[in-house]
Each structure stands twice: as C-alpha cells, then as structure tokens.
Amino acid sequence: MKRINLLGSTGSIGLQTLDVAREHGYKIEALTAYSNVDIIENQIREFKPEYAALVDEKAANDLKQRVKDLPVKILSGIEGVSFCASEAKGDITLNSVVGMAGLKPTLDAINAGKTIALANKETLVAGGKLVTDAAKKNNVAILPVDSEHSAIFQCLLGSPRNHALKRIVLTASGGPFFGKTKDELEKVTLADALKHPSWSMGQKITIDSATMFNKGLELIEAVWLFDVSPDMIDIVVHRESIVHSLIEYSDNSVIAQLGHPDMRLPIQFAITYPDRFPSPEKQLDLWEIGNLSFYKPDYETFPCMDICRNAIKKGGLYPAAVNCANEEANLLFRQGKISFTDIPRLISEAAEYTENKPDYTLDDVYNTDSLMREKVRELANV
Ligand code: NDP
Ligand code: MG
User: Fold this and answer.
1) 337 vs 289: CA distance, rounded Å
2) Cα R_g (the chain), whole angstroms
3) Residue 162: pLDDT band by 50, 70, 90 thresholds?
4) What is the spatial distance between Cα 167 and Cα 219, in angstroms, rounded to a whole number?
5) Which ligand is nearest to the CA of 32?
6) 330 φ, ψ (degrees, to nearest 5)
7) Quick one: average pLDDT of 233-249?
8) Residue 212 CB neighbours (<10 A)
9) Is 367 exposed, middle or buried (0-12, 13-18, 19+ CB in 10 A)?
10) Taking 70 as the threshold, does the pLDDT of residue 79 lie above it?
11) Whether the predicted model's global pTM rises above the 0.85 cut
12) In a mutational test of the pocket of ligand 1, which residue from 5, 6, 12, 262 has the highest number of ligand atoms less than 8 Å from its CB?
C-alpha cells in the first residue's frame, strides 16, 4: 500500500490528492497547510495521519486544541512542514505547496531519500540546480504532477530517456485573455483574470495562467525535469486542454498524451508510477470533442513566457529572480495594488537587480527572494 506525506493538503491539488487517496485507500502519514484549521482538522479526522503541520503558529496551537482527542502530533512553522516532508513515514512526499516556500521541504525530503511527487513548480524554478543535484546524489526520483510534465513523462516512457528527443511542445490553454490586445489587457480586472476557461485551480496559478507566466515556469520546470535546453521547448496554445503536451523525435515522429483536464490523473500517476489503475477521470470520447485547435502564442502581448525563457538561458539565480518577482507581483495584483499589465513590467525591471551567481546556495536563493520582493514593491510604489 502506498504511504504519502502530503504537503499543501488544503489547496486545490491537495484536495484532489486526497480524492485519489480515498479512492485507492492510500495511507496518509502527514498533512500540512499554511493556516487553514477547519479543512485540515476534517482531513486529520478522516485520514488519521501520524503528523500534521501548520506554518502559522497561532493556527497550529488552535489545531492542537481541536484534535487533542486524537493521537496525531501537531507541528508548526516551515520546520514542521519540513519534518512532515522528510521524517514522516510516507514513501512518497507529494508537494503541493504554492510558491517557493516549498523549496526547503522538497530538499529535506530528497535528502531523507523520499520519492518526490512534485506539483510545486516554483521549487524547480527557484532552486532547479539544488533540487536536481540533491536528487542525483540521493538517487531519488522526482515525478511530475503538473499535467504537461506528466504528459511528457508518459510520452517518454518506453524509450531511453532523451534518446533522439528533438523537441518538447508544451500545450497552453491560453488562459482567459487569449486573443486580447495589449490595450484590452490594460483594463482587465481580478475577477476577469480568475475566470480560467478549462482548469479550476488555486488563485496564484490562475493568475499565472492569465499572464502566461505559468507557461514560462513550466518551460523552466521542463528544462530541469527532462535535462533539455530551453531552445528545445516550444509552446502551443491549445484551447480545449485535451492534449496535455507532446514530444518530437529526430525522425519527426510526434507523440502526445491526451485526456480530459482533470488533475486527478497526473496526481494518481505520480503516486502509482510505474503502475496504472482505474482513475476517476472521464473516458475520452473523441467523437464528442470533434475538433482540437492549435495556435502560436502571442509573445508580444504576453511577454512572461520570454521573460522566463531568457532567465533560464542566463542561468544561475535569474530563474529564481523572475519567479520571486512574479510571486510578489502576482500577490500585489490579487490585493488590487497594481494592474494586470504591471505584472510583466515589474518582473522585468526587478530582475535587472539580480546579483547572479552560477553556483548558488539555498541562502543565495532566499536572498534573491527578499531582494526581488523588495524591488517589486519599490518599483510599484506600494
Ligand atoms: P492552493 O493555493 O490551492 O493551495 C496551496 C497550499 O499550500 C495550501 O494547502 C496552503 O495552505 C499551502 N500554503 C500556502 N502558503 C504556504 C507557505 N508559505 N508554506 C507552506 N504551505 C503553504 O494552490 P494549488 O493547489 O492550486 O497549487 C499548488 C502548487 O501546484 C502550485 O505550485 C501550483 O503552481 C501547482 N499546480 C497546481 C495545479 C492546479 O490545478 N491547482 C496544476 C499544476 C500545478 P492554506 O490553505 O492554509 O493557505
Ligand atoms: Mg501545468
């Protein structure tokens, strides 16, 4: 039976991971969240983990009181999350924390020899070299949960990794603003940006999908996961979100993975790999779908994809810098303090201040994070 340490259990991916665990009877050894006491209390009562952690100290104390009738041990702070990631009894740590806060727990889990199922893409973008080096050193597998990367991973199965691989094509839904002009984007609101056409997700990634920064993050994520150069990765807008990504071999043979837009399938495959089991995802009916469409992305109107491509080409701390600047700009937009089109502008301007180092440490990533957040706020006058 699979045993899972689940980080970010109260979020969109966390809840869907628990759907999968409920369906297949997987044992949940640890649950973590930031402060959502109500949801995590219910999850503890249902799944009976040995450990649970909330980053927020006050919320953790509240939780301790609420579940004192149970044997669960309640921890707090990011150290509590790291403990759940690395010391709890799961053989797999599924990381669905949002943002680069997930980096340290990922590293701790890898160093403890846990297989990682990774939804938290910011981990690989901010600390790709640290994470992949640690995984190699500890002989730990990083299994993608992100649907595009799960698709590529599935397409590559059965052929020697990277053998004759020529190109990776990431599909993008295009988000709610596909087809809009730069001028039209000046006036969009938070409510408009939160209306994703095909996926229901947490707020941060929904805004990243509207700016297309999410596809830039995914490009960097693919560079680290599949050990390819950024120039080998193309992006295609595919509004129906049925083709989850494609790979192309040197003979121009293209292989794709298809399915309905339902994260429970990539979540489940990251847990059951290399096995497959029935999943709650609806069977694909191509007659019902009828047509699939593909478009070239509008790189001028949505500059975030190139911001990320250029950052990974520059290397070192640049990917961390653009990720952290985006985390802050995304938050300021959600707080109503900046406009939608301020997001790419602030990221580009802040990233100019990056103090780059090709061989960076975890502290360098944290320093870059603080610097970028400060610069974004300064440049936005907030
Ligand atoms: P949500 O915002 O829905 O959930 C985030 C989770 O992380 C919650 O459990 C939250 O706890 C916890 N959390 C928030 N801040 C911190 C912190 N500083 N330290 C520790 N835990 C924290 O996000 P999603 O589930 O949408 O996304 C999670 C990750 O998965 C992201 O990296 C996203 O890019 C990626 N992803 C998501 C997809 C989706 O369909 N949602 C698809 C592909 C990738 P609390 O509830 O207490 O705030
Ligand atoms: Mg994705």
Assistant:
1) 40
2) 20
3) low
4) 12
5) 1
6) -60, -45
7) 97
8) 30
9) middle
10) yes
11) yes
12) 12
> How many Å apart are CA 108 and CA 78, to the nearest integer?
11
User: Partners of 243 in the beta sheet?
Assistant: 258
The whole-angstrom separation of Cα 234 and Cα 49 is 42
Q: Who's near 80: CB < 8 A, 6+ residues apart?
A: 32, 53, 54, 55, 60
* pLDDT surpassing 90 at residue 341: yes
Q: How far apart are CA 85 and CA 104, in angstroms?
A: 10
- For residue 35, the ligand closest to its alpha carbon is 1
- Cis peptide bond upstream of 274, omega within 30: yes
Q: How far apart are CA 380 and CA 345, in angstroms?
A: 10
Q: Which of 35, 54, 97 to mutate to test the pocket of ligand 1 (most atoms within 8 A of CB)?
A: 97
Relative to beta strand 233-237, strand 165-172 is parallel
Determine whether the shortest distance from the Cβ of 263 to ligand 1 is under 6 A: yes
Amino acid at 264: R
* CA 70 to centroid of ligand 2, rounded, Å: 37
Closest CA to 208 of 192, 193, 191: 193
| Pocket lining: 120 vs ligand 1, CB cutoff 6 Å | yes
